[in-house]
Design a protein that fits this description.
Length: 127
Amino acid sequence: MSGLGITLLTSSGLMAMKRRALRRGLWFKVLDRVERSIVDLTISCVDRVRSPRLAGMLVKVWAKLVDAMKSRMVGLMQTIGRALAKKIAELAVSWGNREAHRWANEPAFIQYLVVKEINTLEYFGNA
């Protein structure tokens, strides 16, 4: 992340971040007017950020955008998938499968459960 931090604190790095956020439709959804203005003014006024205070603000804006840019699958795996895997693993352990406790932390199993959940009619509200 250190390399990313250096480019983030330049006008070209900020323009690249803004471009990505605009392409994904997140620039106006995720950031408020003040945050967008800070980035826009920094791009137009400085080549490289030297102020620690401004750098801190820009890093917070960048973190908001990174969180918003996480793929939908990753987000669902962290929320829905982990909970489902934990429940299924606990049930399998209660049935006598001693190795099933590992399922709760198995990324492939969690991803499978999320894909299965996405593909059910109930998930989309069509039931």
